[in-house]
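Homework help board

Subject: predicted structure for assignment chain

Our instructor gave us this sequence and asked us to write out the predicted structure in token form, then describe one feature. I got the tokens but I'm not sure how to describe them. Can anyone check?
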Amino acid sequence: MEKLKVLYLVNSLGKGSGVMSFVMNTYRNIDRKNIQIDFIVNKKTDVNYEKELKELGANIYYILAPQKISVGGIKKYFKKVWNFFELHKNEYEVIHSHVPTFNFWYFPIAKKFGIEKRIVHSHSSNSSSRLISRIRNFFY
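My token output:
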């Protein structure tokens, strides 16, 4: 039996993150003989799970999100995302996002390059005081 290949999208691998605590609890308990989970990460952190994930067999790909919003920064980021999926065309069966705000970048490109199953996993509540979060929550 061939392994099911899943690509997780996370903001960071930080140990202080509730999302990563959930992800690690899941990852430590899956059947890694039948499931391969790799990671796209948007931000580097000093204290993180990278070493443990690699020791358990995960591949980690950093596609760093722009620090400041600008047309040039967004174009460069979009190009990096596109290049990743072009390079890994038809490699993954599932993309599982833990970062809902980035789905509009990743999901259409992932579909174009052969990932038919796309999962959005929201770890936050439905309300937020930030305007951008309220707009995002309206769509998810």
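Reply (TA_rk): Your tokens look well-formed. For the description, you could write something like this. The radius of gyration is 15 Å. That's the kind of observation they're looking for.
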